[in-house]
Amino acid sequence: MNYDKNNVFYKIIHKEIPADIVLEGDHYIAIKDINPRTPVHILLIPKGNYVDYEDFASNATPEEIVNFHRGIGRIVEMMNLRSGGFKLLSNAGPFVYQYIEGQQVMHMHLHILGG
Ligand code: AMP
To answer: In terms of Cα–Cα distance, which of 53, 21, 62 is closest to 70?
Structure first.
């Protein structure tokens, strides 16, 4: 899968442009979505160059995969999402489903939606 560094999340990870960072781990960064669709809308983004979830799951190292997924629990805790519940969503490619748009940023990210 061809990864193009010319995307906004690559620039945020490499601190070329600012973002509202809520948490940073060895292999991920978590930021507030600039256009939140729910009261809590966090994007959990692996630091490695992966186009989408399938690319990440297939090609990241076990350490990257585990570290990234541990970030979910840290965000849930930090944002107090456990009692009210939350949703995880990761778009890949142009597929549109009802009101959910296709992938806009071609760097793997997980939407954590709640609140
Ligand atoms: P997707 O459609 O799954 O690729 O989602 C991309 C998400 O990135 C959208 O929800 C955008 O609002 C969000 N987004 C785009 N640019 C930024 C940015 N500079 N900082 C934070 N979120 C962003």
So the answer is: 62
